[in-house]
Amino acid sequence: MLKYFIVSVHIILALFIFQHGFLLKRQEIVQKSSCSDAKGDDDSCWMKPQYKRVVLVLVDALRYDFLFPSDHCGEKEETKYCCGKMKYVSELFNNRSLSIGILIADPPTTTIQRLKAVTTGTLPTFIDAGDNFSSDFNVKEDNFLYQAKESGRNMTLLGDDTWISLYPNVFSRTAAYDSFDINDLNTVDDKVIPLLQDEIDNSNSSLIIAHFLGVDHCGHKFGSNHPVMTDTLRKMDKMLENTIKSLRDDDLLLVFGDHGMTLTGDHGGDSTQEVYAGFFAYSKNGLIELPKKAIYQIDLVPTISLLLGIPIPFSNLGTVITSMFPENLRESAVAMNYEQVKRFAEVYSRQNNFAELHNYISREANTMDEQLNSISQIQTSLRVAWTQFDNSYINVGILLLIEAYFFILSEQELTVSIGVFRSGCILLQCALLWDNSKSSAPAITLLMMALSVSCLSSMFKCLANSCNHVVGQNKITPNYIANWGMVIHSISMLSNSFIIYEAKITRFFIQSVLVWSFFSCFERTKRNIKIWPMLKSILEDRKFYLLILSLCFLRFESYFHRCREEEIGCIQYDAPLVSALLPKDTKLHRIVFSIFCMIAFNYLIFGKVFRNEKPIFEKLAYPLILVVSCHMFYMTSGNNSDRANWLVIINLVNSLIISLFAGESKLYFLLFPIYILLGDGLIPAIMCLVFILYSCFQIVPYDTLPPVISLFITYGFYLTGHSPTLPTIPWNAGFIGISGQLALRVLPAILILSHLNISSIISAVVVFIHEPKISNARCVSFQLMRSIMTCVAASIHRRHLMLEQKLDRMSGDELNMTDTDSDAEEESGEECMSDDDGIALETNDQNNSDCKESDNDCIVMTPDLLEKEMKATIADVANVLQVPSGMCRILLHKYKWNKESLLERFYEHPDTNAFLLDAQVIPNVTESSSSAQPNPAECDICCVVCELSGLACNHRSCARCWKAYLQTKIMNDCSSEIECMCSGCKLLIEDEKVMNYITDEVTRAAYRRLVISSYIETNRLLRWCPGVDCGKAVKVPHCEPRLVICSCSKQFCFACGNDWHEPVNCRLLKLWLKKCSDDSETSNWINANTKECPKCQITIEKDGGCNHMTCKSSTCKFEFCWMCLGPWEPHGSSWYSCNRFDDSAAKQARDAQELSRANLQRYLFYYNRYMGHQQSLKLEGKLYATVKSKMEQMQQRSMSWIEVQFLRKAVDVLSECRRTLMFTYAFAYYLQKDNNSQIFEDNQKDLEMETEKLSEILERELENENLVMLKQKVQDKYRYVEHRRKILLSHCQEGTERDQWKYIE
User: Fold this and answer.
1) What's the whole-number average pLDDT of the chain?
2) Which segments show compositional bias classed as Acidic residues (predicted)?
3) In this structure, which long-range contacts are made by residues 1182-1190, counting pairs with CB atoms below 8 Å and at least 24 apart in sequence?
4) Does 791 have pLDDT greater than 70?
5) Which residues are catalytic?
């Protein structure tokens, strides 16, 4: 026992050492800023205060879209109860009294890390998230609260007591309340609201902080889309209304969230919903216009500091929000911010020997733009520095685990010498964890040497033991399959796809071992029995039914599985989801099913398994089932948390007492506390887990149990509704049976860990009490094998993991929230050509626009999904109007599938019948009231006497004529809105009638396609993807010109359906394409594809993307530019003017013929360059094959896959720049000459020149043998080219927003 205790300590310390090198933690600098560091113009401390008082209202988990007005929320069901509910804020926004912005919260998005970032301006790391379970974590770094106190300012805190833990003895007045009880939605907020009002009216504090918790707690308990969230947001809106009305003229109000939340209310930092928080600033002095691009949360720190006239905290990395300062102070604010960041960078680089920072520190930045750019570069450099891993600690941790693994397998006894050695290793491990400075290098070296020797010694003993075991074995046994299954599963950790589908892999191995174990056991005992007696024996064997049921229960994992976004085709069922997210009927059904399962399981346990147990214990289980059932109902109602907590205590105490007196069923009674911990949705999963484990012990041979249990622990993790992602951590488990006001914060952490590791806990308990005893060495070794491979995989793939990605992922998606004007839509003749209405909230990267619902609010839909959505819309409206679904589809088609417009017109119309008659869905009264014809009768069309049928208008014909008429309309006319066959009758035929008459499946399918097509073509929020053979459509929340990317990778503009054409708008592009298609103004193929050498006049055809041409004539060899036909030498200098057209010839024209010729020449100038870049774009598609070959060669020369991706990135950037340049010439053709057009052409020139250089590098210099220099050169070039492209597009966008462009049409 002592041996395994020492080895366990060894393994735990090894994992801590690995974590120390893997999970990032930056070094804190406690130096403080002072007034002497900077002086204002009037010798004030840094900057003169701009406001006498600042009121910070922090609404915990205030997601950005919670602030949006209702007309910007769209029709998304997941924001029905949370978007557009803050009416007063919406009113201020619509009146242009405030501007709404987005704050980006750097992960992890936990409260302590967000408060620390908002006050210090620093970036926390993921290992800091554990501080949330500590009640005495103090901030030692410089912060604006400390600076305000040092300057003699009074500060008031109201709300979350986490501020007191972080900053003790700082506030002049506090009213702090415990924030850990997520079940308490109103207590803290209800206490803070009147205190905030009193503080604003009567306080002399310069800084008032009010931290409200209701929105966050509501999200954790009910999710973001719940009626309770609506009430909570309205309460916050009322609070803000009273606060704003009470402000003084010299007050500044800042309202923001510390993070966002997902639909389930979680906020680990894994998605944009979790890291995007809302923000607005308000002052009675006038509108404070916030940047349209999302800003980092740490940017609040220097902004608040300078607005209050106090020093910026020393460790701050945020950038001042310049729009919040008067124009005459913006340069001064940026300069002070730049000097502060530079001072911090100097100290940090000196203490950490970070040479890269010297490149930015040594440069002097004089202008505001240069200073902002330097701050950004320093910030980026430090972000990269804080994502560096300590490889020495990682390697030591892995080697420690490997040594422990071979020591366990060697089955060595714990002698005195081994005990002394292992104790020494433990002391060295403790020394490494205690001292992480450079002085730990000798300890690392000594430990690595000792571990290597011990590892080799244990390996030799393992080889000797394995040889003895292998001798005499000549067949495949269940133990053989289980061992190799565990080995394969451990190795699969190195593959990302195997990790994603780990549940299915472990299920396959467990199924294989169970089946093989059963039949191998049967083979040993029933070897000489014939087939029919053998089948009879199988059917009489109890293990056979256990096997069948186990195989069925193993398949149930998909019902409890939590889908990851990487899992293609994964269906998310309701069982593992939080009950607050489900409809009431689903909640009730889930609870009833769980109660039924508990009763049935109790009956089976005592009727089939514990037959010898006393009957009293079976009856004692039913009161416990009743307690669990009551707890489920109380938790679902959401208003009886105190009673639910008492039920947890009653359940736990009674379960423990009964288990003490029970016999063989004692473990069964310990399941009842687990039922409550996991919740009603996962109770059946626990029963499946227990049954499968019981079957394994009954079917699998004794020596095969250790690897099977190891596989089972992993499988049980997924079976109990877990997934290895941050959003699926069961935070609600931390409040089961306890109050959030409990001082012992470690208890919630224990409950959460117990929930996550319930399969491990159950398996460990069963192994511990099982008779005969299972080999502890094998059980530990298999678990250790998986831990080793997990650590190895994590160290190999660490650059792909979220730990690094999240720190610099915030280039993000483009979040444009624009309003659409339907009148403008009709006038322009386009589907949607609306302008920006002022709430365009963008992030930094405009190119990352994946068309995913979770990221960019647009959805790629298949025809099946379209039909399903269309039918759902029809059903909704049909229920309101009480009309048939076919008639309802026609009405919706008339109103372009705008439900609100249809219902509004329907209820506004004085005569319902007249409304339906105008819509052609009911017949004219005179037609429908005509005398009925006899039946059978003569058909008016084919003159055959037969049964006649028709529509409500009483125009009847035989079925054959109706069928022929409808087939003609569908197959020939391609019409989905078909009028009555009678001439002059305008009644439209309903879908049900059409389907009744048409029996041909081909025609029926064609009609369904026409209906879906009409649904898309008339719905302004839908558009077919123009990709070849794609067949999908894209749905967006707002109709606007925007880039959308279909799942087939086709990129196009939603407004016009053409390829994405930034910077030219849809209207000008339409004119340009029409002009290009006119043969009278285009040159022939030769002029477009060949040119003559300027020197020797030989005709040359371009066969590559590069515009640097060399004449192939042996007597010429002249180098020239394909675009302008001029010498190539000036194209790399400042004399580059290839892109600029000189229209002096047109101005000197004397007559119409010369003017027409000049116009044609001007058109051909832009057309040739447009087509030239288009041709280059097509030809450079060959580069992908070239680059792929080069990447394979580089990987063969010791470079990893991720290290060679720079080449693919370079080609991607080159293609994007070619596409942008192509459309800049269409834009420039219609651009009127002025100063703005000159700046545009300069930007165009810079981009074109650098694009040519990048193209030349990729086409001519890839054979460079020095891979390091090649990588550096390519990376530098494509980054600069991408930077120039962003500058050009930003200038075009700015000109459009300010209406600076003047066009010639």
Assistant:
1) 79
2) 820-835
3) 1183/1105, 1183/1211, 1183/1214, 1183/1258, 1183/1259, 1184/1208, 1184/1211, 1186/1258, 1186/1259, 1186/1262, 1187/1211, 1187/1258, 1187/1262, 1190/1262
4) yes
5) 1106
